[in-house]
Design brief:
Radius of gyration: 20 Å
Structural class: mainly alpha
Helix content: over 70%
Largest sheet: 2 strands, antiparallel
Number of helices: 12
Strand content: under 5%
Number of strands: 4
Order of helices and strands: HHHHEHEEHEHHHHHH
Amino acid sequence: MGNFQLTDSFKNFKVPPGLIGPLLITAVVVAAHLSFGILDGWKKFAVALGVAVITESVLHKIVTGKWRNLSSAYISGNSAGILVRSPMIWPFALCAAISIASKYVFRFRDTHIWNPTNFGIVVMLIIASDSMAVLSIQWGSNMWAMLVIWLVGFLVISKVKLFHICAVYMVSFFAFAWVRSVYSGGLFLAEVAPITGPMYQLFVLFMITDPKTTVSTKNGRMIVAFLIALVEMFFRLGEAVYAPFYALFIVGPIALIIDKLWQERQANVAVNSET
């Protein structure tokens, strides 16, 4: 009877939706660092995480007069702490601060239109490329760690019904990798290789699936994922190392604005039809 109750309780156990993202990125950080040492130092990582949380707390309190859940800031701080590469500490802090601040500055119809970390990374690459770079290493012989994280990540993403975004992007990436290999005369495996790195884990599992900056319909989200991969292909043909970040930076907000305007138009049509 005790075993039955334990099993039954386990089956009924559910992770609160707000904790799914933080738990997943924590798993990515721990597994990736222990297996491959991806962090540029725990002190720098802690600075990025701390600045993200503090910036979120202060700005939200100033704007709304209330304290808010910090799960989003936790994810952004972790992402900045993993992705930024610099011998100095200030790029970690500045990237985290810019990421969070973008949510309160660049808004359309009362919502932010860029994935925070994506915005912070791209801005830092523009204004401080001489002082920082972005993690883009591949897993090499530590492929097992990458496979485990992808598997766990996809299982979690499927639970929140966003797996279709990852699936469309991945299929599109492989298809466009083949196109690039044919166009450039290079090896297909060389074109596919970047997706084995931790940078892409964060990009696929957290950036393009960010619920706050994805469009409202399933078909729309799949189209956007395809377009991100398409634009990324052109950046890669231009030898842009950080092509996925640039692609999302361009496609994401445009798609979100169009989606918001379309929703408003549909709502107006519905109201007019009733009057």
